[in-house]
Write a structure and sequence with these properties.
alpha/beta, Urease, subunit C, domain 1, TIM Barrel, 2 domains, nine-stranded mixed sheet, eight-stranded parallel sheet, 14 helices, 17 strands, metal-binding, Metallo-dep_hydrolases, Metal_Hydrolase, Metal-dep_hydrolase_composite, hydrolase
Length: 506
């Protein structure tokens, strides 16, 4: 995705990252030069040594931020938007996950749901996403999702799901064969495309051990081949406690072929465990000894569905942020950072005030740390030091925030990091670049198709809404599950219990 010209931003407020101190720094009235998809110069003041074909943009009253990095997402599900507003995690499994969706979603539904999700992320300032692509219902469904990825212009780590068992009409053998086919797909090796191939696998505890061993050997053999583009990441769900889905660091470490300490994988393959609900201190210590293994916290999802973020805060230095199921809430990543920040403040304030009976003397978490979780820490989790940051040599994945809306007045002159985390909304995102190419400019999405043709955004919307209308009609007719307190869940290690309900009407 090369750029035909270089771009100079001047008079800007720029949020940069200094690797030597692992800290953010704000440059005022600054200039930034983008060439061939990377940031080549940064300066407080003017830059004069620019190529002759440079486009100059006056960024007065603008804040330039690194692009946001979302390390856990299921992008194909957009058509479910608004119909699962009050669902629990077990209802999600029965109604809105891959089952029963595989019976009704066509490849065309998958394409438009995936592309609509990508455009929402772009619109919200996300420039990199790890898509746990569990809509692997057939080769045709996978092909549709991958096509949408390449059409979107977004930097996507497409984590193809290899089914651990005979499920969803798509067997382990078929999904593994498709994974091998994708490993050989030249599009993932093309440096002009921002889409990379990863793997998602949830069979470490449930699948026959020989399947897991076979899959790990496929990864090792591929990543050891110098002529192949290495796999970008491996991801898995981890939700412990009463849910019993304990694909935690300790469990993975104790496998016969350890994913944590395997020498041929260490430092070559980032491993991300999503949610990390009920993380233990032993798990946290293991993460710190193995920096290529991290967790992705999805605060709103964990609050919405009920699996909670309990324990994950013990390993925030090994964490990043994700969105998970964007059809149940906004995909705006600063809102996830804001929610996580305030949850942490509330938790530790309560510990001091309620449990200890003391008045808190300090704030438990800073806005700068919340901002880092949504940017640089996401790049770190993916083994990348060139995304999620603004620094010389980094990819030009940047977001341009406007300050015209009343909620952003005074932010540029004050603390722009605090302004973005605490006061901004998606409507403040005026421009987004991925690899130096505009995907949103002056408040409008740029044509998403980057593979040679054009698709108008209005046409994408029309075809998506047509698909979503059909899907909603089907789901309205599906029988809704009823869960009774005291019954066995059939999943996990506990029985159903009833939560206290809240009433706001007199």
């Amino acid at each position: 995705m090369p750029t035909s010209t270089s771009t100079l931003f001047k008079n800007a407020t720029i949020i940069t990252y200094e690797a030597s101190t692992k800290s953010l720094k704000t440059l005022r009235n600054a200039s930034m030069l983008v060439e061939d998809g990377r940031i080549t110069q940064l300066s407080e003041g003017d830059l004069s040594d620019c190529p002759s074909n440079t486009e100059t943009i006056d960024a007065s009253n603008k804040i330039i931020s690194p692009g946001f990095i979302d390390t856990h997402h299921h992008m194909w599900q957009t058509a479910f938007r608004t119909i699962a507003a009050d669902t629990t995690l077990h209802e999600y499994f029965r109604l809105y996950g891959p089952s029963p969706a595989y019976q009704y979603f066509t490849p065309d539904d998958m394409y438009h749901g995936q592309l609509a999700s990508a455009l929402e992320l772009v619109d919200c300032g996300t420039t990199t996403v790890l898509d746990h692509a569990h809509g692997t219902f057939s080769d045709e469904h996978v092909d549709a999702v991958v096509k949408a990825d390449f059409d979107s212009g977004l930097r996507i780590m497409h984590a193809h799901v290899v089914q651990p068992s005979e499920a969803l009409g798509y067997s382990y053998e078929k999904s593994l064969a498709k994974f091998k086919n994708l490993l050989a797909d030249p599009r993932f090796a093309d440096k002009n495309n921002p889409v990379e191939l990863g793997l998602a696998y949830d069979g470490f505890l449930s699948a026959p051990p020989e399947r897991t061993t076979e899959l790990i050997n496929v990864i090792i053999n591929h990543n050891q081949n110098p002529s192949q583009t290495p796999l970008s990441c491996l991801t898995a769900h981890y939700v412990g406690g009463p849910y019993g889905f304990d694909q935690n660091p300790t469990t993975l470490h104790n496998l016969p072929t350890s994913l944590i300490t395997q020498p041929t994988l260490t430092h070559k393959l980032p491993i991300l465990l999503s949610h990390a609900s009920f993380l233990s201190q032993t798990d946290a210590a293991l993460l710190r000894r193995n920096p290529h293994v991290t967790i992705s916290i999805t605060p709103e999802s964990e609050a919405h569905y009920g699996h909670t973020s309990h324990g994950a805060d013990m390993a925030q230095d090994c964490a990043s942020l994700g969105v998970d199921t964007h059809f149940t809430f906004s995909a705006y990543l600063p809102s996830q950072a804001r929610l996580w920040l305030q949850l942490q403040r509330s938790k530790w304030y309560s510990q001091t005030a309620v449990v200890n009976g003391e008045v808190p003397a300090n704030n438990p978490m800073s806005v700068a740390d919340a901002f880092l979780l949504a940017t640089q820490k996401g790049g770190e989790a993916l083994g990348r030091d060139d995304v999620g940051v603004i620094s010389v040599g980094a990819r030009a994945d940047v977001v341009v925030f406007g300050c015209e809306r009343p909620g952003m007045w005074g932010v540029r002159e004050g603390d722009p990091v605090a302004g973005i985390v605490l006061h901004s909304c998606a409507g403040d995102v005026e421009g987004v670049m991925v690899g130096g190419r505009w995907v949103k400019r002056e408040g409008r999405l740029v044509s998403p198709l980057v593979g040679g043709g054009r698709i108008e955004v209005a046409e994408v919307r029309r075809r998506f809404e047509e698909s979503a209308r059909r899907i909603r009609g089907i789901w309205e007719g599906l029988e809704k599950p009823v869960f009774t307190a005291g019954e066995d869940t059939g999943f996990g290690v506990a029985r159903y219990g009833r939560c206290k309900t809240v009433e706001v009407r007199r």
